[in-house]
Amino acid sequence: MSHLTDEARAPFRDAEPKIDAGDNCLEAIVAANPARRSVLKNGLLGLSMLPMLGALAACGDDDDNSSPTPAPSPTPTPTPAPSYSIAFAPVAANQNDTVTVPTGYTVDVLLKAGDSVEAGTAYSGSFPTPADAEKWAGGNHDGMEYFELSGVNANAGGLLAINHELADYNILFSGSYNAATATADQKALALSAVGISVVEVAKGTDGKWAVKAGSRFNKRYTGNGSYRAGGPAAGQLSGSIKGMLNNCSSGRTPWGTYLTCEETTNNYLDPTQPATNYGWVVEIDPYQELAEPTKRTAMGRFSHENVAYLNDSNNRVAFYMGDDSTPGCIYKFVPNRAYSANNRAANTDLLDYGTLYVARFNADGTGEWRALVQGQNGLVAGAADPGNVSQSTTPPAPVTVNFNTTADVLINTQAAARVAGGTLMDRPEWITVAPNKQAIFVTLTNNSGRRVTDNPNPRATNLHGHILKFREASDSPLATTFTWELFLLAGNPQLAEANLKGNINGDFFSSPDGLRIDPQGRLWVQTDHNLTGNAGTLNGAAVNMVQAFGNNSMYYIDQTSKQSKRFLVGPTGCEITGIAYTPDLKTFFINIQHPTGNWPVAGQQPRSSTIVVTRTDGQPVGN
Q1: Cα end-to-end distance, the chain, whole Å
Q2: 73, pLDDT greater than 60
């Protein structure tokens, strides 16, 4: 969650195909029709077919039997297999107003807030009408996923689905946004800039990526649109819901739909809307083939950050989710049935039926998943919600909550999790599952207000956050128990306060947020420290986060040695978030959220943007 979003919500809180031509190949045609040889040899130059001459000369020429037999061509040298080892030279922490990457890498801007997604007039320095803005890329780019397209080389083109957490107000209207005093146009503009963008992207002959203008897949889903709800609590929501918003991070399903996460349990941009309509995972089909965008209530209502899944050989699947609240719990949702790997349509309602669980982390490194089911684990009428007991040494007074129905549990998921004994964590944000399914990582970004510690959250006044790792029993999505360990504590070893030093091996950082293990098993971490927030004491003086850590950045972390290597540093004022890639891992897409300087276009308003990171030698990123 961006610190800008936190401030905005504060007043409202509660590979290419191979061609085998067979008998249709040129040599076969000539062999069957000798008279065609002279036509081919004498006429192909006019058709720019110079490369074919070698093939013709290699054939026995019926018109000239004295032609010598050519020597065999030398065996070509095999193309070396790509290397996925991490060999880049780490970049230094800095406060530069640019994107810094290692030597041998390039950065290109792909999609800026205000660029056209659907056909229309893009931002060019003037404030838009609501109708224009509705077709723009929204603001505060966050989580995203890359989807392959049938018939397209996935390493050269596909779909990007990109979340928009908050508006880039500086390109919409003058001044700040206040929902209580906003005009109808201002409200429509603010809502136009949240939601998601789906764009088709392609690599040109020059190797540069661009949005494919006019693609039928290019589409905005905004805070002004209409959405339906599915699942057990749908009847308690509006029949037609206005908008989705605070689209923070995201995920995907095994059947190729996009899961975008509402990181708010109310509509703080338009408070006239019922709060219960928000705080859900929204399933959207980027191919526009399946159901209309649907808020999946069976997955619970809270400040959703992202979704990551673990599946098994029987197509059973679990979806893991973090509640980006201070504090919040970790959840998983297990559908009642297996998904179909061959029929996408058969999975249309899969996320409407299943069991939601909350994680309880025991002090001994074990854990359990407690079902959030009405009538179980204390979820009954008259239940006592203990509240956020981690935030004060004096426990808050319990609050009575009535869980009379399944809908009650799902709408009041945060209270249900506390009643059921879920562990309150330090702002759980991104979750990622290892390709071998033997590890699940979660970033716990920070919790400056923690006063009562426990083993999975060992630091009071946790300014810098940590990363936790757990493993399901038998590596099964259906497991009800797991084991866990602290992976690392973020911080700066040069800080005076022992509580803020952390234990990072290598390049240190604060506030881990974005997190992903790529298909080669390499762990990437992105940071979101509040730039002006207190970081501790350095060289005898109080310092803020930028002074202690530089601009927000992105890291590779070795899972065995836990060595951290800084891969990328963002421009002034930004958060680094969102990570997607092509299957060959030669192209990484990364989001730069809410920059405040002179980036991405010098002399223009700063704008949140999606960038493309590649190597100049065409090798996989990280090498």
Answers
A1: 30
A2: yes
